[in-house]
């Protein structure tokens, strides 16, 4: 799940990077991805990551004696 979130984040960063360059009139040409893969990524929607929940989703994870209470 961590690796999937890292991949998803990388695609989202590429979308944002490409979008910002386009806004200032710069045409980016991919150096490591082939053109089709690059275009498929930047022309698709931003992706949301999956949330990791500790303690089976129970909001009461602590014992109540921490500094935040």
What would the keywords be for this entry?
single chain, 69 residues, elongated
How would you sum up this structure in a few lines?
It contains two helices and no strands.
Note the topology.
Blueprint (H helix, E strand, L loop, with lengths): L1 H22 L11 H8 L27
Task: Describe, in plain words, how this protein is organized in 3D.
The protein is mainly α and 69 residues long. The protein contains two helices and no strands. The protein starts with a helix and ends in a 27-residue tail after the last helix. The mean pLDDT is 83.
CA radius of gyration: 19 Å
Topology as H/E string? HH
Strand content: under 5%
* First-residue to last-residue Cα separation: 31 Å
**Average predicted local confidence, pLDDT:** 83
The global form is elongated
């Amino acid at each position: 799940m961590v690796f999937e979130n890292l991949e998803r984040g990388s695609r989202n960063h590429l979308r944002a990077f490409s979008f910002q360059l386009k806004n200032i009139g710069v045409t980016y040409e991919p150096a490591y991805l082939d053109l089709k893969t690059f275009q498929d990524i930047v022309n698709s929607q931003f992706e949301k990551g999956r949330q990791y929940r500790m303690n089976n989703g129970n909001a009461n994870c602590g014992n109540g004696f921490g500094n935040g209470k």
